[in-house]
Amino acid sequence: MQHPSVGPNGYELVTLIYSGSVGEIAVGLMKKDRNTMMALRWCPGNENVATYPGTETGWFLVPFTFASAIGRSLAQLHATGHAGIDAEGFATMATWLIENEGLDHAMCY
């Protein structure tokens, strides 16, 4: 699946963490100047799966508190071997979250 390389307000896609598939949500990190933020987007649907909401499939930025919660969920998925997570993108996200105190160095579940 192809994803736009540019998001709102001039943010550019740095790395894709979870590419998603038809009708799912993709997760990436976007950067503008020195500011990095997590971004989400609805992946386009097809004849079997509708895109929600409507036809909007552009990136949207999420606040850091939500990015931390999403990052923890992705860490759990990654630990189980979920195939849809990009290893390099995940490592970049984990480093970003740890540096900004959104994820502990050692998580125990």
Verbal overview:
By secondary structure, the protein is of the alpha+beta class. The chain has one domain (8-99). Helix content is 27%, strand content 23%. It has 2 helices and 4 strands; from the N terminus they run ββββαα. The protein has helices at 64-79, 87-99, and strands at residues 12-18, 25-32, 35-42, 60-61. Strands 1-2-3-4 form a 4-stranded antiparallel sheet, with helices on one face. A hairpin with a 6-residue loop joins strand 1 (12-18) and strand 2. Helix 1 (64-79) crosses helix 2. The longest helix is centred in the middle third of the chain and has 16 residues, at 64-79. The model has no long low-confidence stretch (mean pLDDT 88).
